[in-house]
Amino acid sequence: MQEQTRKERPVSLVDIFLKARELEREGKDVIHFDAGEPDFDPPEQVMSATINAIRAGRGRYTESGGIPEARRAISEHIARKIRVEIATNQIVVTAGGRLALYYAFASLPKNSKIGIISPDWPAYKDLARFIGHQVQFFETRLEDGWDIDVDQIRNSDCNAIVLNYPNNPTGKILEDSVIRDLVQIASEKKMTVVSDEVYSDYVFGKKHFRSILETTGLHYILVTSLSKSYAMTGYRAAYLVSDEKTIQHIGRMNSMIMTSAPEFVQYAIVAALSCEEYVKEKAELIKKRRDVAASALKERLGAELYSPDGALYVFPKLHSGRSFDSERFALELLEKKFVSVSPGTAFGSWYKEHVRMTLLQDEKRIEEGIERMAQLIE
Q1: I need a surface site. Which of 164, 266, 295, 314 has the fewest CB within 10 A?
Q2: Does residue 278 have a pLDDT over 80?
Q3: Which of 14-18, 118-122, 148-152, 222-226 has the lowest mean pLDDT?
Q4: Would 352 be classed as within a structural domain?
Q5: What's the average model confidence in pLDDT over 16-39?
Q6: Judging by DSSP bridges, how do beta strands 339-343 and 31-33 pair with one another?
Q7: Closest CA to 297 of 369, 230, 220, 365
């Protein structure tokens, strides 16, 4: 019966995460490569600002778009980071990246067709379809370095496209030439570009990440949150950036759905955006973990792997003596070796031989987890 259920419904990220938590409650030593949740604390300034705001009585209703201090801090942060001037009336503060994406998709015309580049975070298609939009996937492959065939997008009838770079799950960052081609296509076809830049602070080496805000001549909606860069997953702190008209519309939705983001969380956002050294330190930490994971995966599992340009994950292609099924492997690995990975099929049906692994354990735990994976495959 369990096997029949597995075939009817793909094993999801949530399935693995909940099963891992259940095993932990039973006393098992589970190594987590599942949820994209940092294993470090937010900056001390963030925790202090949150406590101080609550003690100062800053737990009230605010403007639906966000308090002026938070929107100004975001505007100044963008100016420092990418040298682009964004007015405060182009910003909405909301609760969490998932809600920000919901607003972005809900602001599109009814029955839009949204292009999604695979492998992709499952929330994109789930949210788009929930709202009533159509979805078209554009497959990329490890063998091609996760590069996009831009002609597929040029020849599509999509009126919106989602960009997520650095990418979850591959860690890919697009080359500038590809970004220019995509921007030109989007401009010519009057496509809205929804750019999820939640991992933009995690960029490794000399690779350059180009924000959608650095481009011109197209309609964009940038969505991001502070969950990853500042380890603020439970704070539900996020924001959107777009043109003034779109932001006014999104602000009205925010007002109807949640009135406003919690006031004390908005003061935490102000504090977080001044913690630039903290972010650099964590990016360097993840880079070291990437190197450890990539080396161990190749040496112990013979995995094929694109060394991530950024983000928090590796997405190796695994092999064994039999036809590799990442869903079966993820369940067996968790049940027998107490290591939780996300099956590649959660990010697209084409990725049966891949698994996603987060880089949110220390180096020793990463190596131990990969050793347990090797024991199962052997």
Answers
A1: 295
A2: yes
A3: 14-18
A4: yes
A5: 88
A6: parallel
A7: 369
Query: What is the mean pLDDT of the segment spanning 105-114?
Result: 96
Cis link prior to 119 (omega < 30° from 0)? yes
Model pTM?
Answer: 0.92
Cα 152 to the chain's mean position, in Å? 24
Concatenating the DSSP letter of every residue in 78-100 gives: HHHHH-----GGGEEEES-HHHH
Q: How confident is the model at residue 21 (pLDDT cuts 50, 70, 90)?
A: confident
Strand 219-225 with 238-241, pairing: antiparallel
User: Could you list the residue range(s) of the whole structural domain that residue 250 is in?
Assistant: 44-274
Alpha-carbon distance of 110 to 334, in angstroms, equals: 41
Q: Is the peptide bond before 68 cis (omega within 30 degrees of 0)?
A: no
- The answer on 192 and 304 residing in a single domain is no
Measured CA to CA in angstroms, residue 369 lies from 32, 33, 296, 303 at distances of: 8, 8, 10, 14
For the stretch 157-173, pLDDT in tens is: 999 999 999 999 999 99
> What sign does the CA torsion over 109, 114, 120, 122 have?
positive
Q: What percent of the chain has pLDDT over 90?
A: 85
List own/partner pairs for 252-255 with CB under 8 A and 24 or more apart: 252/64, 253/103, 253/106, 253/107, 254/64, 254/65, 254/92, 254/94, 254/103, 255/64
- CATH for 283: 3.90.1150.10
Domain CATH code at residue 210: 3.40.640.10
H or E element in which residue 224 lies: strand 219-225
Domain final residue, candidates 243, 259, 274: 274
Tell me the mean pLDDT in the region 68-74: 98
Please, what's the b/e burial string for 97-113 (b: 16 or more CB within 10 A of its CB; e: otherwise)?
bbbbbbbbbbbbeeebb
**What's the pLDDT at 321?**
57
Say if residues 194 and 113 touch (Cβ distance below 8 Å): no
Q: In the predicted model, what is the mean pLDDT of residues 22-39?
A: 90
For residues 249 and 283, membership in a common domain is answered with: no
Number of domains in the chain: 2
C-alpha atoms less than 13 angstroms from C-alpha of 73 in its C-beta half-sphere: 19
In a domain, 74, yes or no: yes
In this structure, the answer to whether residues 223 and 343 fall within a common structural domain is: no
Do 218 and 327 fall into the same domain? no
Does one domain contain both 246 and 354?
Answer: no
Strands 339-343 and 238-241: unpaired
Phi-psi domain of 216 (left: phi exceeds 0; alpha: psi -120 through 50; beta: other): beta
